[in-house]
Amino acid sequence: MPILRTEKLGKSFKALQVLQDVSLEIQESERHVIIGPNGAGKTTLFNCITGFLPITSGRIYLKQRDITSLEANERVKLGMARTFQKNNLFWNLSLEQNILLALTAGKSYRNKMIKLLSSYTELQEQKEELLTHWDLWNQRHRAVNELSYGEQRVLEVALALASNPKILLLDEPTSGMSPAESKHATQLIQNLPRSMTMVVIEHDMDVVFSIADRISVMHHGELILTGKPDEIRNNSMVQEIYFRGGTLKSAAD
After folding, report:
1. Is the confidence at residue 251, as pLDDT, over 50?
2. pLDDT digits (tens, 9 = 90+) for 76-135
3. Which domains are present in the chain?
4. Residue 41, exposed/middle/buried by CB under 10 A (0-12, 13-18, 19+)?
């Protein structure tokens, strides 16, 4: 039974049809990667699934619940979290302050805090756990705008994880990273618990084939194919439409 499902999802901006009849199923605990050329509608699909954009047609289901009309914050409460294609951070705050704000947002006492954040043991322990996992602990006192772009991208993922999501949507998590940063971030993503479902938009084929259980290919706002990595790699239609006749290879080839 899928944890996330879209049913004939469509999105248009006046006369411009950006998504058309996108029916996608994400299985629980799956690592599902969405690929496609620039302008294929991948980020628009994420924006619709997460409630940042209203859809024009179709339905969206999370664990069989119709969430089509829910606001983005309500979807977060149901266990959905995401990152953005462009970093969405508090630039002048420190790295640990960003993390603490994200952690506090999910607490029942967030609107009635009468003590300093440093006195909440639970918050401090969760902060340390997140920053340690993502190799950011030694940077915790630095302002975000002083971090490298790769470190900022990693912090964005850590912030999304602060809500302890059941399903995590990552929009090009390795975009703009150096090869070394990308390899490191990929390893960290691979090490996330299988209890959490992941949907990833990614352009780097080495990353795609390193993390994907299944891959969906989008083109001109349509979902044209979903399959296992080898099926996608060897599919002539995918090579023709997405790779202009090139050959798909992974880092293991």
Report:
1. no
2. 999 999 998 777 788 889 998 888 888 887 665 555 555 566 666 788 888 898 899 888
3. 1-79+166-253 (3.40.50.300), 91-164 (no CATH)
4. buried
User: 3-class SS at 92?
Assistant: coil
State pTM to two decimals: 0.87
For tokens 């024009």, the residue is 56
Q: Read off the pLDDT of residues 186-220 as tens digits, 9 standing for 90 and up.
A: 998 998 999 999 999 999 989 999 999 999 999 99
d(CA 221, CA 79): 26
The three-state DSSP-derived secondary structure of 166-233 is CEEEEECCCCCCCHHHHHHHHHHHHCCCCCCEEEEECCCHHHHHHHCCEEEEEECCEEEEEECHHHHH
| Intra-chain end-to-end CA distance of the chain, in Å | 33
The HSE-up count of residue 241 (CA atoms within 13 Å, CB side) is 21
Q: Is 122 exposed, middle or buried (0-12, 13-18, 19+ CB in 10 A)?
A: exposed
CA distances from 151 to 56, 148, 174, 212, 247 (A): 36, 5, 10, 23, 32
31 φ, ψ (degrees, to nearest 5): -105, 100
Matching residue, tokens 């859809």: 55
Report pLDDT for 119: 62
C-alpha 176: how far from chain center: 16
Q: What are phi and psi of 117, to 5 degrees?
A: -55, -35
CB 58 within 8 A of CB 8: yes
DSSP code string of 122-141? HHHHHHHHHHHHTT-GGGTT
